Amino acid sequence: MPAKISPIQKYGDEWTLFTLARSGADISNSDKEAYLASVRKVLDENEDSPSLVPTEYAKLAITLGSMGIDPSTEENYNIIAKIYNDKRISDATSNAPIFALIALDSKTYVIPDGAFWTREKLVDQILSYQKESGGFSLNKSSGDGIDITAMALQALAPYYKNNTKVKNSVDKALNYLEKKLDATGSYGGNSCTDAQVLTALSALGIDATKSEKFSKLNSNLVGNMAKYKTDKGFGIGAGGDANDFANTQVSYSLNAYLRFVEVKPALYKFTDVEFTKAEDDDSSEFDSAKMYKLIDKIYSLVDLPLPNNKDTVIKASKEFNEMLKITPDDYIDELKAVEYVLTALNGKIDLMNLVDSVDYKDNAEKGKEKKLDEAIAKLNTSIEKR
Description:
about 5% strand, two-stranded antiparallel sheet, disordered N terminus, single chain, about 375 residues
């Protein structure tokens, strides 16, 4: 019977929640809602002061998706769009494109025309980190590594059969991993490294218990996991104390293997997960509490610096227009009373965009800044008078 987890879940527990969700753990609706609320709080804060790196968005998309929560909706900050439009992946370490591709492929998310990244571009970005040895590196200037090679294979696995370029790369990487396997059928007695390779082999349809290439002295990656077992989970090495990283990685690698042998959807393929809407996600019914919450939110936008927070203003404008459609006559005047705030803020954004688009000649930058400051001052005065 699947284990029941603690009711306290929060941002930062992604891999634990993902591991439990994919193993069939009983994650209650209240636990999901608590986690989702903490994620939305972090994303709200990130709108004001961006700090999340590309891999964080991918990790959130994977975790939410595994729990049946759609990360592509506007309500959930369209995390999927943040992934395929994240230009920082170009200069990030290899785990950024790796997990971006895993996240996008976990469901059949649509990547629109004009997106910065396509699946093909992410594949090419991952391949650019492969070394002559066949292994992949975390940085293009660093050497190859077993863990990151295994992670790259997990992302590339769905393309192995139908993409010659990927197949050649994966075959080369598998040869690298075969050579790195030690005499005990392990990778240096490190449970996390063994787990990553087991996950990769399972994604590629290779049975680690039957493959001669990945077995030594009747030992293999599946059987070896027993030596890392402790009273409280799994340790990094044999005889070591239980470790959170080892607990999650060993657990989900064994789940990946079990899914492979039982012909179930792969660890990162959520075709067996149905996205559900929150019970209160019926936007067709008016809720006065939601209206007043939106009004407070709109008034608070005045204190946010622009243009850094233009996305927040745009999102609030969309929410306002949707609320306007369903608000009854008894409440409509109260809602419309804040419309001028959005009009002024959107006007300010448009003005900033217009001024920034002008090519000022003869070193007239000071004149540009003066015009902008004057225009913004007038708009702020208008807001304050209201």
